[in-house]
Amino acid sequence: DLQICQHRAPTCCTKKMEESYQAAVRRERTQSIQALNFELKYMIVGHITAFQEAFETLLRFAENRTSSLFETAYRPMAKEAAEPVKELFTDLSLYILGAETTVESAVLRFFDSLFPLVYSRLINPGITDLSEDYTECLRLTRQDINPFGRYSKNMVTELSKSLWASRMLSQALSLGIEVINTTEHAALTKECSKALVKMQYCPHCQGLTLIRPCVGYCLNVMRGCLASVSELDAQWREYISTLEYLTNEMAASHDLEIALTGIRNSINEAILHAQLNGPQLSATVDKVCGQPKQQQEGNLPSDNIVPVKEVTEAQTFMMAHASLNNKRREFINYMKRSRTFYASIAERLCDGDLVMRDSSTCWNGEDVV
């Protein structure tokens, strides 16, 4: 009653043993593919973590630099500006990690929050009535009167260019993990299971427990079993080329580090531009939002400011910058070597202990040759 290991000679196998063999080859094949995938997946996961840590270090450095701008140059508004600054960098971090947001919305939301502070603390420092309605009116007016000139738009352009490559790389690495996970659990067809049993276990039914498959026979069986997986070859090569392009983009003209450290200067220029145009802005705001209550000079509130440690931050930044550059190079060199991963998967599975290489006898699916 044997279905797979049918042979003219007497046999020690039963139909139930054949079923056990089919379960065994399915399990073994999954484990073999997992073992092949492990190194590749380990490298990608390790670099996702390393890139994200480097991004976070750079973002924290840029955030501290921006906070220190307010604490040294714009003390009257430093305390109130802390929250908008924090929100801006949180939004940028989420954008890099693939959240459904844009650099433009993050930057413009920041300038919307900044304008009421600049207006009430720097342009008209006597204002006391910052009610919710008045603040909201100032936020909305910012969009119409553009108090920060071209600097807000320039900041959007610079950051969009540099953060785009980082975001795409982040998403591409996650996609790579998905592809590898999918191939690990690719179901074997019934025909494939039978072919594997015939190749690996049918000799056992003849008492030939030490004989192994011939190399050519193994390759034919594995290529047939893994046809759907090896079809990924062209797309995988294209995927590696895309990763190479993105890492080059990050390192070249769209330099993430330069753009992030430039945020402080962009905001400073924007605030100076608003101050220079203070009288015109006040006239427009008074027409749109009305005149707020004024406080007597000399009674302006003062905030206690905590200075930022810039020296240690600069050292951390340099280390993160060097680390990110090294990671880029190391990662792309490794990924280039995995270009033929899916094309050569059958050869790699037939390597090692599975096949007979140095002996004159091997199993060809029917007999010992």
TrEMBL record:
Short name of one Pfam family: Glypican
This protein's record includes keyword ATP-binding: no
One GO-annotated biological process of the protein: regulation of protein localization to membrane
Recorded topology in the membrane: Lipid-anchor; GPI-anchor
Cellular component GO terms, alphabetical: cell surface; extracellular region; plasma membrane; side of membrane
Keywords, in A-Z order: Cell membrane, Glycoprotein, GPI-anchor, Heparan sulfate, Lipoprotein, Membrane, Proteoglycan, Signal
Classification via PROSITE patterns: GLYPICAN
PANTHER family recorded: GLYPICAN, GLYPICAN-5
Family statement: Belongs to the glypican family.
Protein known as: GPC5 protein
Species this protein is from: Lophotis ruficrista
